[in-house]
Design goal:
By secondary structure, the chain is of the alpha/beta class. The protein has one domain: 3-Layer(aba) Sandwich (Rossmann fold). It is 45% helix and 22% strand. The strands form two sheets. It has a seven-stranded mixed sheet, with helices on both faces. It has a three-stranded antiparallel sheet with strand order 7-9-8. The chain is globular and about 50 Å long. Bound molecules: S-adenosylmethionine. The site of S-adenosylmethionine (SAM) has 20 residues, from α1 and α2.
């Protein structure tokens, strides 16, 4: 997908992502905490947050680094970054900056950050190696980069099955290995190889089962339709009737994850971190 189309895709999803961000933040919280710890984020640190979205993890990092530290949130979508600025202001945080940029084109001062983070972004980039190389340039020698990605379709059934349905209705093939996609970096060994190929050392990994619990399947569907940019993009360019039929089938599928107490979608993420050689 061309960069302009990626930007358009996420500009379209930004209002929905901002609306559902508290839900997403709660869902991913154990992995977010691990990501900040594995990136060695400490008071006074300068942190780069790549593909920040509406910034819930930006704000968590900003609280960790405190008044003497700084967090730069970067994203391809300016609308996402507007939400970051608004939220930082509302939270009384004055140590947050923003930079609109595609990850692959990131242009920041060399070796000016102590650490970098990227939550649920790297697997979506057309060139994750270029993005990691940009992070490697940005952090100081010995600095850490920590990322969160989804693992496999098998461990993320409530995410994988809707994607299959949408692709089938749109007449599109699933991404082949090496292509961007929600599960492109989650198989065993893939992220470790990517970090190592980009010149990082000491790769650490932790896996978290993070079932998504919501009031109902209808609510999960609403979030997926409004906020999940990669899903919206699959059916973004098909006729209205096809799009409606695809989402109707997704709705029925999500109902299979309803329990007596509400919706529970199995999900799993991987937190991986590595260092730039000192
Ligand atoms: C799934 S959201 C995750 C947002 C945030 N990190 C979070 O966890 O809440 C993916 C984000 O990646 C951004 N993005 C997608 N492709 C990008 C690219 N090539 N360069 C920079 N940002 C990108 C989108 O705009 C979106 O904000």
């Amino acid at each position: 997908m061309r960069q302009a189309d990626v930007r358009k895709q996420w500009e379209g999803a930004a209002p929905g992502w901002a609306k559902w961000e508290t839900t997403v933040a709660g869902w991913i919280e154990p992995a977010t905490i691990a990501m900040l710890v594995m990136a060695d984020i400490a008071p006074g640190a300068r942190v780069l947050d790549l593909a920040s979205g509406a910034g819930s993890q930006t704000l968590s990092a900003a609280r960790e680094v405190g008044a003497h530290g700084h967090v730069l949130a970067s994203d391809i979508s300016e609308t996402m970054l507007r939400h970051v600025r608004e939220r930082a202001r509302a939270a009384g945080l004055t140590n947050v900056g923003t930079l609109a940029s595609a990850a692959e084109d990131l242009d920041v001062e060399r070796e000016s950050f102590d650490a970098a983070i990227c939550r649920l972004g790297l697997m979506l980039f057309a060139e994750p190696a270029m993005a990691l190389a940009a992070l490697r340039r940005a952090v100081k020698p010995g600095g850490k980069v920590a990322v969160v990605v989804f693992t496999t379709p098998q461990s993320n059934a409530f995410m994988a099955k809707p994607m299959q349905i949408l692709l089938r209705h749109a007449g599109k093939a699933p991404p082949s290995p090496g292509q961007p996609g929600i599960f492109s970096l989650g198989a065993s060994g893939v992220i470790e190889r990517l970090f190592t190929d980009c010149g990082f050392v000491g790769v650490e990994q932790r896996t978290f089962a993070i079932p998504l619990r919501m009031a109902s399947a209808a609510q999960a569907l609403e979030m997926m339709r409004e906020a999940f940019g990669a899903y919206r993009a699959v059916v973004g360019d098909v006729p209205e009737a096809v799009r409606l039929a695809a989402w109707a089938e997704v709705a029925a599928m999500l109902e299979t994850f309803e329990t007596a107490t509400g919706f529970e979608g199995p999900a799993e993420v991987l937190v991986a971190a590595a260092s730039k050689p000192a």
